[in-house]
Amino acid sequence: METLLWILAVVLVIAGILAIVRRQLLWGIVLIVVGLLVGPGGVSVFT
Question: Using CA atoms, how far apart are residues 25 and 28, in angstroms rounded to an integer?
Fold first, then answer.
């Protein structure tokens, strides 16, 4: 389960960075914050 959370967090952060590059600043910030919250190093939603 922890590996799945890591993968999900990485995908969300990368999607957030790409959104910021495409000038979608708010959506990019939201994705990055959610990615950091979901990741095992952050405050996981699933625990």
Answer: 5
